[in-house]
Amino acid sequence: xxxHQLSFRHHKRASYFFRDISFDLERGKMHALHGKxxxxxxxxxxxxxxxxxxxxxxEGRIIGGENAILVNQRFxxxxxxxxxFLENLKFACINRCPHPFSRLKPPLFYPDFLEKFHIDIxxxxxxxxxxxxxxxALLMVLQRERNILLLDEPxxxxxxxxxxxxxxxxxxxxxxxxxxxxxxxxRELTNHFVDGRHLHLEMGATGLRRLECVFHGA
Length: 218
Hints:
By secondary structure, this protein is an alpha/beta fold. 27% of the residues lie in helices and 27% in strands. It contains six helices and nine strands. A six-stranded mixed β-sheet has the order 5-6-7-3-8-9. It has a three-stranded antiparallel β-sheet with strand order 2-1-4, with no helix packed on it. The longest helix has 15 residues, at 160-174. Residues 97-102 have low confidence and may be disordered.
């Protein structure tokens, strides 16, 4: 994904919220987006997935935005608890075959994930751990065949153990050439797992939010 001189206003008469933001996300790596509450991290993620608010004005270029999908904090809303892990994945496949006469494709999931994260695909979703439910939700999103995931605090509701499981899963996704941009307030997790850019949103001297690349992961 490449972002060139991205600017945004909430409406035509509003002051700029962002102005001339440029950066790129290397393919197949995990990147992090940092910033205090209210800095506009969620606004930026929405723009990167080409979701512009009804009255919003976006300027600049986002190359690769059509291949990006945003996963918000309420990942569990897409899961049907009474159905199994596998059944939920099959439901997600419907988005890939909207025509009623299309043959439903088998779900895309990687068998090596199941053993590594101790997932029983026949178990009802209500019986899965928090980390396993997040993995299910992310695999459901991947049924849309997108290769850039924008994750808005994917571990916000999880305990330390399940949060680490999710980050281990995300790291595994990069081996499948998926590009990730993750918002997470746990710097220990991001410092350990992120191997791409660390982007930091902060308020500049003029009152405009600015984005800095703090450093690259190892």
